[in-house]
Specification:
There is one protein chain. It is elongated and about 55 Å long. The model has no long low-confidence stretch (mean pLDDT 95). It contains three helices and eleven strands, in the order E-E-E-E-E-E-E-H-E-E-E-E-H-H. The chain is α+β, with helices and mostly antiparallel strands. Strands 4, 5, 6, 7, 8, 10 and 11 form a seven-stranded mixed beta sheet that branches. A four-stranded mixed beta sheet has the order 1-2-3-9, with no helix packed on it.
Length: 179
């Protein structure tokens, strides 16, 4: 369904760029003829990796300064230029945990927080892990944690889970990757 004619963009402005994302607004003519500014943030695509190693799921735990809390999360990161979700999953999993998987499967692509973000996320399941060396960025202070796959859903629902982790675990469970 194409609503572009009944939601015509009158003006679009980028008000700031951070190097991480851009923010601005679109002034839109609504179907009733009135105009309204819709504010947005434009972020690069990201990947979220649910890594299954035998009977465990590999998580990372890290402090998130924005919310001032330590969080248990799935491996995640930005999709770099020229990468697809599976390639980004391979790179992020190795960098953050040291693991390399035999198989990477894109489970779902999700448009995130569509009321304010221009941001897509790919949920990828990684299976058949082999341990290796991590390659953390200078600003990554990450601990690798293993959780029994049978407890993964309950574990992320108990704690302070971010949306990407909750989405990834629930989609993997729904698709039969978790017991």
């Amino acid at each position: 369904m194409d609503d572009s004619e009944s939601w015509r963009v009158v003006e679009s402005a980028t008000e700031y760029e951070t190097g991480w994302y851009a923010g601005g607004y679109d002034r839109v003519e609504q179907p009733n003829g009135t105009e309204k500014d819709y504010y947005w943030a434009d972020l690069p695509d990201a990947v979220v990796v649910l890594a299954v190693d035998g009977e465990d799921v590999v998580f990372v735990e890290q402090y998130r300064p924005v919310i001032r809390e330590r969080c248990l999360e799935l491996v995640a990161g930005i999709v770099e230029a020229g990468e697809g979700y599976e390639a980004a999953a391979r790179r992020e999993l190795r960098e953050e945990t040291g693991y390399v998987a035999d198989e990477y499967t894109l489970v779902q692509e999700v448009a995130c927080t569509t009321g304010v973000l221009r941001h897509d996320r790919g949920i990828v399941v990684a299976e058949g892990l082999t341990a290796g060396e991590r390659d953390l960025d200078d600003n990554e202070f990450i601990e690798v944690r293993r959780v029994p796959a049978a407890d993964a859903v309950e574990t992320v629902r108990e704690g302070r889970a971010n949306d990407a982790t909750l989405e990834g675990v629930l989609l993997a469970a729904a698709d039969g990757y978790l017991p």
